[in-house]
Amino acid sequence: MHTNPAAPLLQVDDIRVAYGGIQALKGVSLELYAGEMVCLIGANGAGKTTTLNAIAGMLPLAGGRIAYAGDDIGAL
To answer: Which DSSP category does 74 fall into?
Structure first.
């Protein structure tokens, strides 16, 4: 849990991404606060690139929400 009383700068809530009928991401959530850094670590095929591509808007979301500074950016 984060102790910063400010709202998160980036909030990813329960995002899901599918390629055709294959669900690649199932319920990924994270919060980043101003000044923080994050590293995604995982095995090949774990969904690291898909997660970043979804956050960057390069893949459509099958569900969930992405917000930057409180504004929903998941549909951009």
So the answer is: T
Is residue 59 scored above 70 in pLDDT?
A: yes
Give the residue-averaged pLDDT of 40-59.
95
Q: Which helix (H) or strand (E) holds 51?
A: helix 48-55
Tokens matching residue 63: 């569900």
User: For residues 26-61, b (16+ Cβ closer than 10 Å) or e, as one string?
Assistant: eebeebbeeeeeeeeeeeeeebeebbeebbeeebeb
Coil, helix or strand at residue 22: strand
Domains of the chain (ranges, CATH numbers): 10-72 (3.40.50.300)
Amino acid letter, 48: K
pLDDT, residue 19, reads 93
